[in-house]
Each structure stands twice: as structure tokens, then as C-alpha cells.
Amino acid sequence: MVDLSVKIGDITLQNPVTPASGAFSWEYNDVIDLNRLGGLVAKTICREPRLGNPTPRMAETEGGIIQSIGLPGKGIEYFVAHIVPEYAKFKPPLIVSVSSESIEDFAALAAELSVPDVDVIEANISCPTRNSTGGNFAMHEGYTRDCIQAMRAKTKKPLWVKLSPNAGDIVSIAKAAEDAGADCLVIANTFLSLKIRTDNFRPALGNKFGGLVSPALKPIILRMVYQVAKVVKIPIVGIGGVTKAEDVVEYMLAGASAVGVGYAGFRNPTALITIIEDLAAWCNERGIKKVAELIGAVRDQDMEKDPLVAASAGV
Amino acid sequence: MPSEPKGKYTNSALRAGDQDPYPQRLVGEFIGTVVSNRSVNDEYKHLILDVHEHALNAYAGQMFHLLCPSPDDEEVWMRRPMSVYRVDRQAGQVEFLYKVEGRGTRGIATLAPGDDFNLAGPLGVGFKLQQGWNNIVVLGRGVGLATLAPLSQLAAERGIGVTAILSARNPAVVMSKELFEGLGARTITVVDSDGSSAIENVEKIIEALIAEGKADAFFTCGSNRLLKLMQRLGKKHNIPGQVAMEQIMVCGFGACYVCMRTFEVDGQRVLRRVCRDGPVFNMQEAVGW
Ligand SMILES: Cc1cc2nc3c(=O)[nH]c(=O)nc-3n(C[C@H](O)[C@H](O)[C@H](O)COP(=O)(O)OP(=O)(O)OC[C@H]3O[C@@H](n4cnc5c(N)ncnc54)[C@H](O)[C@@H]3O)c2cc1C
Ligand SMILES: Cc1cc2nc3c(=O)[nH]c(=O)nc-3n(C[C@H](O)[C@H](O)[C@H](O)COP(=O)(O)O)c2cc1C
């Protein structure tokens, strides 16, 4: 039987399949056994209680959905007092996602979230509908460095950083986060997008812009994971378009140590369990003893460079 | 016709007769089998599914989240919520009454007997009948009646009398009359075509029921005008009520905060999740649209 466990710094995940922030809550325990997941990832929390964005918050498009929720929540105090204990009832490590509009507050929140039942702090510096100078710091190398340095100074918890696919050069931003003390990079958040209704000429979402979520984005995020993995030493969690076990394998081959799953859990509430079971079966069928062997195992070293030779090979 | 384009990835969903590896779960992902899917009139269809016994725990006002087959070969990305119309525990079946509208419901309309159909549920907080209520008034229009219909089953089981006021455009599209009557409810039909569905007339009917002592509680769904009427009469006569609300919905479990609606609680406006805090809410707290 394959050993599905993976290590991300000092944290061991019993398998590489975690939910994605905002697409999951402890309430999913109604339908799946949360103790089987690699980790538990809470919805991004902010300091103040927030209502979130005007509805509609989701619209379907040709290739997926766009959504803009607006980080609703009851604020940090309520979160620590009432929501952390809900997650603490389960065994997998708790990853707490946090957002703010200022670097100082990001740092202060990191300190306040450094409580025993929180295992990891995930800095969501990539909410696509936040301003790049007001929380969407992952758009800039400098802001990313400053924000992660400030948080690092305030917490000893493992600090994961969720990057933006909307940044021009994600590799240098990833490097900046690593230099500033990040323990892991989460790649990536959603793509900023827009839908306009042709029946009434209005934007389909109450917030106008939203984040595009689609399995079709997987190759783009996979490319980012691959590129970043080549230049950083810290582990990576790949998020974007995972709907099946082979997608987990693909992300791991590209260099990710684990994946996050969002949309697939909407389509099939039991999807995460299916993916974990299928991943074990996939490894067992191939005699893979440890899933961690897949990390970065893409065979890209000895690729044929001569087009004449490549085109003379079988297909 | 394959109703599960990625069926391979739903192998944790339960079919009728499957052993449940996680029986303590409240909610399941199920693959039901279509028994029938017939038109009730030009707009509405009635779907009957054989399901795993765990799905039969659904009660009035709860819903299932349905993974719709595609009507056009393009993916239908999100599930669609549907109230449970009837649960037949003996037969092991759940039923839905739905209006064929957009891509999701047009997809459901393509289902034929024997097809697989993936549904998650039962979800949400449904209708609650309180001790001491002897007679209730149910008022609904259009597809709202699909949500209200199983209330009559629940009420019949408790020996509570039901008066159902069914509102529709014309007599041909009045829905669920037989279902309500079959369960012993008294029905009153009001329609636009003869003007009887006008608010003033419905108000008179309800006032008469109150005078007769037939209105210990109010129930409604599907119409803003009817909600406002019942809220007004409920306030005036101090009659409690429940309303089932709708909103575009994504996860169904309370995680994504997409299906928000506004409520007024102790003078303060708040947002609540239709999928988990509802879909049935205290009628006086609902803010109409
Ligand atoms: C708790 C609950 C119970 C419901 N029960 C029933 C039922 O028993 N029978 C039934 O026919 N319908 C019911 N609905 C409404 C049903 O979910 C929508 O009609 C359906 O989602 C429309 O999907 P579509 O793809 O056919 O249309 P779309 O193309 O998605 O939309 C068509 C129209 O319906 C509106 N709409 C989309 N989603 C919803 C929604 N969730 N609620 C209300 N309007 C929506 C859209 O804004 C649009 O105007 C219920 C909704 C909720 C929230
Ligand atoms: C409804 C919804 C809400 C989300 N909320 C958050 C959030 O609060 N914080 C965050 O970092 N990402 C959020 N995301 C992004 C997801 O975590 C994830 O990055 C994205 O959905 C891509 O993964 P997927 O293709 O598996 O869905 C949200 C996504 C969705 C669909």
C-alpha cells in the first residue's frame, strides 16, 4: 500500500489533497469524513466583520464560473473563539487563511492567529478583487516582500503565501516571498475576469469583477508551479482545476507537494474523498511506494531537442 | 444517454442498495435512477427517482442539489437546488416538481427512465410544525407550490388541518391540487384569468380563515406579493409564519456564501445563507424583493 503522506516544512499531511480556501468549511463534515483529508483550510478571515459583496456572487460562463464573494465573515475575534474550535474537532492540520488591506494589519493578524489550534497561517495576499496596493499585494514583488517580512516577524507558525496568477511575473514574486521567510507557496488564487449579460447589458456579478474558476485553467497554473519550483527551495501547494487523481499527480510531477481543491467539491461534494482513494489506487497500480516520490519527478531533463529526431519517433 | 460525463469521478456517491461507508453523515451524494420524468403541463415536469435509503430522510422544505445533465453538450457548471416534492419511503423514491427554465432545468427535462441522476442532500432547514397548531394556511404560486406541497404530508401525519390557497395564471396551470387534496387538505384555487388571485381577494379569503379559527400558522413560497400579504396579516393577528426563500446557490453546505438573502432581525438587517440557515425562515424576518 502506498504511503500518501507528504511533508510541508514541519507539517505532515496524511495525503496531498486539501480543500481550497473559501470553497470549504467544517460544515462539509455533513457529507464527507473530514478526518480523511490532507488538511483543513478555513475561509479567508479579515479583522473586521464583513458582509461581503452585493449579490449575485456567482455566474456561469462557457468555461467555468466567475465568483466574487467579498470575504464575508464575522471577524477575527469570533473566528478564533468560535470557528477555530469547530475545526479543532478534526485531526488534519488546520490552515487558516487571512487577508487585510494593510501590511501592518496583516502582521498584527498573524500574531493574533498564532494560537495552539492553528497549525498554519496562509497569507491570502492575492484576492483578485482587492486593490494591488490594498491587499492584493501578490501583484508586486516589493509589496509581497514587505508583507511577508512583517508577518514573519510576528509569528512562529508555518507561514504559507497564496500567490496571484494575475501578476506579470509570478516567479520573481515567489522568490520575494521565499526570501521574506515564507515556508510554502500556494499557487494560485483565481483569474480576474468579467461577464456582461447581453439581455440587460449589466455585469453578471454584483461586484462587477470576479475570479474565474475552471478546470481549463489547470495547464496555466501547472506551468506556474513548474516555473516556480525550478527557482525556490520551499514546498508548493498547487491549486487550480484539480478534479481527479491524475491532476494531483500532474501537479506533483511539476513540483507541488500537495494540491488544493475548490470547484470539484461544488460539483461533487464527495470529490475530495474520491480523489484521495483514486490517488492511492493510481500509485498502487504502478507500484509507487511513496506518493512523495512524485514531487518534481517530471522527466524534462533528457528531452529530444533535434526536431528531425523528434519527428522520426513513434507517436 | 450518459448523464454523468465524468461519472468516473463520482465513485463515492451512493446508489440504491450500496453499503454506506459513512452512515453517520447527515447528507449524501447519491446516484438515483430515473423512474419517470413526465410533463405536468406546458411548463412543469415531475421527476421520480429511485434513491439510496439515506436520501429518504428528507422532510418538507428541505432540498437536494442536483447535478444537471447538459441540454446542449456544454458543461452545466453548477448544481441546481430543488425542494423535495414528495418522499415515498415505501417505494424508496424521492420526487421533484420543476419548472423548465434555463440550461439546468432543460437538462433535467432530458432525463429518461433508467438514466442515472446525481443528487446531493437532503440539505437545509425545512418547515417545522409546532405543538399546539391545529390548522395551518398554505399560500403559494407557481413553482413555490412544489416546495409547499410536502407540508401537507407532514401536517397530515401530525393530524393538522391544511387549507391550501393555490394561485396561478389560469386554471390549466394550477399545480399540486390533487396532491394537496389527496392528503386531506382543503384547497382554494385563485387565478389571474378571473381576477380571483388579486391581493384584495386573497386577503379576504385569509381573513375568513382566521375568523373561522383555521389559521394557527402561515406558510408561503415563491411570490413576493403573497409573502408581503402574509407578513401583514401575520403581524396584524399575531400569527406565526414560515417562508421558503430562493437564491442562486453554489455549494449547498454553507461554505461559499453565494446564496445570501437579507433578513431583518430585531430591527437590524443581516445576510443569511439560504442553503444552510434556510431555505425555510421565520416569515416576519424575511425582507421581500
Ligand atoms: C431552496 C430552493 C428550492 C427550489 N425548489 C424548486 C422546485 O421545487 N422546483 C423548481 O422548479 N424550482 C425550484 N427552485 C428554483 C430552481 O433552483 C431554479 O429554477 C433553477 O436553479 C434554475 O436553473 P436553470 O438552469 O433552469 O435556469 P438558469 O438559466 O440558471 O436561470 C433561469 C432563471 O432562474 C433564476 N435562478 C437561477 N437559479 C435560481 C435559484 N437557485 N433560485 C431561484 N431562481 C434561480 C435565474 O436568475 C434566471 O432568471 C428552488 C430554488 C431554491 C433555492
Ligand atoms: C466561491 C469561492 C470562494 C473563494 N474564496 C476564497 C478565499 O476566501 N480565499 C482564497 O484564498 N481563495 C478563495 N477562492 C479561490 C480558491 O481557494 C481556489 O484558489 C480556486 O477556486 C481555484 O481552485 P479550483 O480550480 O480547484 O476551484 C475561492 C473560490 C471560490 C470558487
List the helices and strands and how they pair.
The complex is a heterodimer of chains A (315) and B (289).
Chain A: E1 6-8, E2 11-13, E3 17-19, E4 40-45, E5 58-60, E6 65-67, H1 76-88, E7 94-98, H2 103-112, E8 120-124, H3 141-152, E9 159-162, H4 170-179, E10 184-187, E11 191-194, E12 209-213, H5 218-229, E13 236-239, H6 245-254, E14 258-261, H7 263-267, H8 271-285, H9 307-310
Parallel strand pairs in A: 3-14, 4-7, 7-8, 8-9, 9-10, 10-13, 13-14
Antiparallel strand pairs in A: 1-2, 5-6, 6-12, 11-12
Helix pairs in contact in A: 2-3, 3-4, 5-6, 6-8
Chain B: E1 14-15, E2 28-39, E3 44-50, E4 63-67, E5 80-83, E6 86-88, E7 93-99, H1 103-109, E8 116-123, E9 135-141, H2 144-157, E10 161-168, H3 177-182, E11 186-191, H4 199-211, E12 217-221, H5 224-237, E13 241-244, E14 260-265, E15 268-273, E16 280-282
Parallel strand pairs in B: 1-2, 9-10, 9-12, 10-11, 12-13
Antiparallel strand pairs in B: 2-3, 2-8, 3-7, 4-5, 4-8, 6-7, 13-16, 14-15
The structure holds flavin-adenine dinucleotide and flavin mononucleotide (FMN).
